[in-house]
Amino acid sequence: MARALGAQAPLSVQIGSDASLRKHGFEGHNNLSFHRRSWNSTSLELKKRNVQLKYQNEVVCMSVQQASKKKVAVQPLELENAKEPPLNLYKPKEPYTATIVSVERLVGPKAPGETCHIVIDHGGNVPYWEGQSYGIIPPGENPKKPGSPQNVRLYSIASTRYGDSFDGKTASLCVRRAVYYDPETGKEDPSKSGVCSNFLCDAKPGDKIQITGPSGKIMLLPEDNPNATHIMIATGTGVAPFRGYLRRLFMESVPNYHFGGLAWLFLGVANTDSLLYDDEFTNYLREHPDNFRYDKALSREHKSKKGGKMYVQDKIEEYSDEIFKLLDGGAHIYFCGLKGMMPGIQDTLKRVAEERGESWDAKLSQLKKNKQWHVEVY
Ligand code: FAD
């Protein structure tokens, strides 16, 4: 099957060839790798072989100009057909039993805490759109309601609807282990570790997992204008939905959606070792320099202009003129991550607006009214 991506001087590339796999963000690391922590070679080879097997007969045709921006073929394309996003296909009383494909640590040794990339096989039975969340019911009894299952915990989906294997059968999550430090001793108290995040990060391939959803409409990627600007502000695991967006915008060959706008990601984490999916994002910078910007705020390594720790709001302030102009031009702005990120960001935006002689309250209500303002914090 041939997919035509461009009209001039067609060039055929076998999807699944080493060259094409390298181009699809698998470059230089033998395949998927996150922040210098590659998938181990066994799972790596297995994944690569799976992708090769799935796409060995598919050929992409593209123009010479586009050859440097080869995209991955995805299936099933019926996932493009629905007019509305899937919602709550599985509820807490009747969850779907999915299977863990892989759990990989995403961060380096100097990162405070642990964050994992978890791939879940839903067999194509729990479809979702980019920006939605899954609910996970961890095993065991609800301590507050003996005899009842644990409460559902929500996790933003970090893959596109086609999943990391591009076949519509998996979903990926980006999960940070919740740990508890005794405020008096400063020591970790494992008896108070977060139930679901630790269950997910400790899971092994083949383990069964109860999922609900998908849920959420706030963070869906508006696709009515393929030339729109999307400004994404993330702290930590808040990057999850944006990884999904960016794979859809830059990595996958999606019929009828050819992105020509600007995607600008601001990512705030503690230090270089805590960066998430940095290789993937850096690759987009290389391949789509006109359509992608990527700014990092490493609070424990960078200093803000005022000499303090560098947080995302300091990066926003640095680029506030451009950001305000883009918002005035209709850009979408998204925030995702810990709840604590919003007050600092809102204060910064308010201050910048006032310096520009604008009322932030009026501007914010206009952004909300225009559906340009998208917030999911937890
Ligand atoms: P829980 O068991 O629910 O415990 C919660 C916290 O309480 C933990 O920090 C735990 O250490 C602490 N604790 C436990 N016992 C005690 C005690 N006795 N005294 C004091 N403290 C205690 N998280 C992600 O990692 N990635 C995501 O992409 C993500 N997306 C989300 C999207 C949405 C829309 C929402 C609402 C939340 C999202 N979350 C995400 C957060 C996630 O849902 C969970 O809240 C988080 O993983 C913690 O759940 P847990 O079961 O591990 O912790």
From TrEMBL:
GO terms for cellular component: chloroplast thylakoid membrane protein complex. NADP(+) binds at residues 156, 176, 237, 299-300, 309, 337-338, 376. Residues 93-221 form the FAD-binding FR-type domain. InterPro entries: FAD-bd_FR_type, Flavoprot_Pyr_Nucl_cyt_Rdtase, FNR, FNR_nucleotide-bd, FNR_plant_Cyanobacteria, OxRdtase_FAD/NAD-bd, Riboflavin_synthase-like_b-brl. Pfam families: NAD_binding_1. GO terms for biological process: photosynthesis. It comes from the Eukaryota. Keywords: Chloroplast, Electron transport, FAD, Flavoprotein, NADP, Oxidoreductase, Photosynthesis, Plastid, Transit peptide, Transport. Pathway: Energy metabolism; photosynthesis. Its cofactor is FAD. PANTHER family: PTHR43314. This is Ferredoxin--NADP reductase, chloroplastic. The lineage of its organism: Eukaryota, Viridiplantae, Streptophyta, Embryophyta, Tracheophyta. The gene is LOC109712871.
